[in-house]
Amino acid sequence: MTIDPRLTERRREVAEDRARRNVRRLIRFLIILGLAGAVVWLFLSPLLSVKEVTTTGVVASSTHLALAEDGVLAGTPMILIRSGDIATDLERDPWVREAVVELDWPNRVVVRVEERVPVAWVETEDGWARRAIDGVAVPSSGEPDDSLPWLDFSTIEDSEASGSRQVLGALEFAAALPDELISGTRVWPEANGEMWADVSGFDVRLGRPVEMAAKGLSLAALLREEPPPGSILTLIAPTHPATSSVVEEPAGEDEEP
Questions:
Q1: Is residue 108 domain-shared with residue 125, that is, in the same domain?
Q2: How many domains does the chain have?
Q3: Distance CA 74, CA 72 (A)
Q4: How far apart are CA 196 and CA 208, in angstroms?
Q5: Could you tell me if residue 83 is inside a domain?
Q6: Which domain holds residue 186?
């Protein structure tokens, strides 16, 4: 039995065509693999690695230590840095109110931190702590001093302080006071929900914990007018402050003064 030469030639052509297609596929695969390897090398190479870490706003926080622990160091490939995760880690520090981490390609990391500033000593059931205006406690010695106002909320649990309207209102009031009124200032809540304060020797009725920053500014203006000693200053409405004096009735003949 003989095979038609034309059929044999056709089979050979088909085999050669299949072989050429396989070679082309292999070449394309090798080219893609090579390009992928080059891209990976480029992103992991010193050309696209961290050379500079710039931080702003860092004063009291452990931002630099946290960045080092997260691998934000010279030589780290930029592609391995997850800016969102690093910002979240930085904000775990009680000093850090907000952190922003940006990758400035090809080799610079920019970190901007907004730190909390303590505005008052606050006493809760767990004792004294310095707190920022958002109610978060920042590291402190535990013993209050006259560098900040004192806020007495000893009946409130420590975990509830940052969400208490009264505590946040008192902190807002303390933050609005000028420096000359900070030392010796005391703020406390009454049973009826009103806030009272002792500022520069004057009893100050603050009312409900609303518009507390405006009340702080209004009080400063009122004290510049030098109210009579012993006056009670009422700031329930900060735009209409009032001053009332305590009048002592003269003692009668049969009464002790």
A1: no
A2: 2
A3: 7
A4: 9
A5: yes
A6: 120-244
State the DSSP string of 16-59.
HHHHHHHHHHHHHHHHHHHHHHHHHHHHHSGGGB--EEEEES-S
Could you give the 3-state DSSP secondary structure of residue 195? strand
Tokens of 236: 């329930």
Considering the domain architecture, whether residues 103 and 189 belong to the same structural domain is answered as no
Q: How many CA atoms lie within 13 A of 217 on its CB side?
A: 7
The domain spanning residue 158 has which CATH number? 3.40.50
What are the backbone angles phi and psi of residue 115, rounded to the nearest 5°? Answer: -90, 155
Alpha carbon separation from 203 to 149, 237, 245, 246, 253 (Å, rounded)? 15, 16, 11, 11, 31
Q: Which sign, positive or negative, has the C-alpha torsion 22, 25, 31, 32?
A: negative
Q: Note the pTM of the prediction, 2 decimals.
A: 0.77
Q: What is the pLDDT along the chain (257 residues), one digit of tens a residue?
A: 566 677 777 777 777 778 788 888 888 888 888 888 776 676 677 889 999 999 999 999 999 999 999 999 999 999 999 999 999 999 999 999 999 999 999 999 999 999 999 999 999 999 999 999 999 999 987 789 999 999 999 999 999 999 999 999 999 999 999 999 999 999 999 989 999 999 999 999 999 999 999 999 999 999 999 999 999 999 999 898 888 865 444 444 444 43
